[in-house]
């Protein structure tokens, strides 16, 4: 079986809710990052055989197959197909897995995996809430209710459950949020994101578009953050431990990676950034919901024949601070290798766009630090988790 290689990876800088990217239609955001990876490789756009995009809120401007609409908003010819994946927050990480599997099998040679989410224009839970309000019912079925009686499927509840299960205090959560913010600030000031970010014109939701102003810095970073301010944020639940300050930020953004096999490397003269070394996806408890990255990482290491210390850098999505802290407990990973340039608490989490966003950051960080192996994982709605291990080349 052939290998799968990442030959280009890019992302937009994150935009705050109603912020600097909120005037962009999500299909146009996706089209821009698709063009970005094509431009970085110099490949003939017609050589792309499929576009697989992750998106969670597949309604409104993100409905009707966002991947295909992104293709039609890009420089790719009409002959390039597209399909949209929903594995909740892991949607574009799953898109990457599907792309890798396609080129490894030889069914295709060049595939773009990508994702986009405009949380300003398509608010979180829109697809479920709007359908329910329109009288089309709720996604939790009678059979699900029978299997999980009186259960609320909620990531917010799951975050509190994880904090208590792993005995993570509010003070520890607050400290983690402060630390990841400081890492994001340091990375930004050091120019660590410059090679991965695709500059875009600023477009506000209200139509404001400052002439020539470009969006190049993650808008969610709180450069004036202090531990005291973070600690003072209101709890999300009475007697809880998690606050908005220790949860990922609502974010607008898109990202893309180009995945190819050896045949395409030779045919198009491409230089790989990394090789896909291993891929895992598991289902886990849908009630605590956010815990799946922990057993998924253990399984991925076992199946790949690796130990945690073999991995140089980790990207564990910071949907809520209890997730990476519990993950550190279970895996015994070196905290200094985790989310070294900050995570979603500081940078934002554009839902379906986060999978290829984290991979973009990971492969660039491996290159900058001259490291070899990187591991990416994230919690996903419904109690799911993907794990991807890559080797920098």
From TrEMBL:
Transmembrane segments: none
GO function term, MF aspect, one: acetyl-CoA C-acyltransferase activity
Active site positions: 89, 349, 379
Domain Thiolase C-terminal: 270-392
CDD domains (alphabetical): thiolase
Pfam families, alphabetized: Thiolase_C, Thiolase_N
EC number of this enzyme: 2.3.1.16
Family note: Belongs to the thiolase-like superfamily. Thiolase family.
Protein name, per record: Acetyl-CoA C-acyltransferase
Organism from which the protein derives: Solimonas terrae
UniProt lineage: Bacteria, Pseudomonadati, Pseudomonadota, Gammaproteobacteria, Nevskiales
């Amino acid at each position: 079986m052939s290998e799968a290689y990442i030959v280009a990876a890019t992302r937009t800088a994150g935009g705050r809710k109603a912020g600097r990217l909120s005037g962009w239609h999500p299909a146009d955001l996706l089209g821009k990052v698709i063009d970005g990876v094509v431009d970085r490789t110099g490949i003939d756009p017609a050589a792309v055989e499929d576009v697989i995009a992750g998106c969670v809120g597949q309604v409104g401007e993100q409905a009707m197959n966002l991947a295909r609409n992104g293709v039609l908003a890009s420089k790719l010819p009409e002959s390039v197909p597209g399909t949209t994946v929903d594995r909740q927050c892991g949607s574009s990480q799953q898109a990457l897995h599907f792309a890798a599997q396609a080129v490894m099998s030889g069914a295709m040679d060049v595939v773009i995996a990508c994702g986009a989410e405009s949380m300003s224009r398509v608010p979180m839970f829109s697809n479920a809430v709007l359908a329910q309000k329109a009288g089309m019912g709720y996604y939790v079925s009678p059979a699900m209710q029978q299997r999980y009686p009186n259960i609320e499927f909620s990531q917010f509840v799951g975050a509190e459950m994880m904090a208590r299960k792993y005995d993570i205090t509010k003070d520890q959560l607050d400290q983690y949020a402060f630390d990841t913010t400081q890492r994001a600030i340091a990375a930004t000031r050091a120019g660590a994101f410059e090679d991965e970010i695709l500059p875009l014109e600023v477009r506000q939701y209200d139509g404001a578009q400052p002439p020539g102003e470009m969006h190049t810095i993650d808008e969610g970073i709180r450069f004036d953050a202090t531990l005291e301010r973070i600690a003072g944020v209101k709890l999300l639940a009475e007697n809880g431990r998690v606050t908005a300050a220790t949860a990922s930020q609502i974010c607008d953004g898109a990202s893309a990676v180009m995945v190819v096999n050896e045949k395409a490397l030779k045919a198009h003269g491409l230089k790989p950034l990394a090789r896909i070394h291993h891929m895992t996806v598991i289902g886990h408890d849908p009630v605590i919901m956010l815990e799946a990255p922990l057993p998924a990482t253990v399984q991925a290491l076992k199946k790949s024949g690796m130990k945690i210390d073999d991995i140089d850098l980790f990207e564990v999505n910071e949907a809520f601070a209890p997730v990476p802290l519990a993950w550190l407990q279970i895996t015994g990973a070196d905290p200094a290798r985790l989310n070294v340039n900050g995570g979603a608490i500081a940078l934002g989490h554009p839902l379906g766009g986060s999978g290829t966003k984290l991979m973009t950051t990971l492969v660039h960080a491996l290159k900058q630090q001259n490291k070899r192996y990187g591991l990416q994982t994230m919690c996903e709605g419904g109690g799911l988790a993907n794990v991807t291990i890559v080797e920098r080349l």
